Amino acid sequence: GKDNLEQAKVGAEVEKQPKIAEYLKNRPKTEF
Fold first, then answer.
1. Is the pLDDT of residue 9 over 60?
2. In angstroms, rounded to a whole number, what is the distance separating the alpha carbons of residues 15 and 8?
3. Residue 1 vs residue 3, higher pLDDT
4. Residue 25 pLDDT more than 60?
5. 0.85 exceeded by the pTM?
6. In the Cβ-directed half-sphere of 31, how many Cα atoms lie within 13 Å?
7. Distance from chain centroid for Cα 32
8. Which helix or strand (DSSP H or E) is residue 29 part of?
9. Terminus-to-terminus CA distance in the chain, angstroms?
């Protein structure tokens, strides 16, 4: 649904920004 679409958009942006990818990987995902 919409959540998957948002995740896909975030993923696409994160792939361009490894530092952000690391940050997101190391934080809890409960906020999403």
1. yes
2. 11
3. 3
4. yes
5. no
6. 4
7. 9
8. none
9. 14
Q: What is the DSSP letter of 32?
A: -
Type of residue found at 3: D
Take residue 10 and report the two structure tokens written for it.
Answer: 């975030």
CA angle 32, 26, 20 (to 5 degrees): 80
Q: Which amino acid is at 22?
A: E
Length of the chain, in residues: 32
Which tokens belong to 26? Answer: 């190391």
How many angstroms separate the CA atoms of 23 and 1, rounded? 25
**Is the separation of the CB atoms in 31 and 24 below 8 Å?**
no
Q: What is the mean pLDDT of residues 13-21?
A: 75
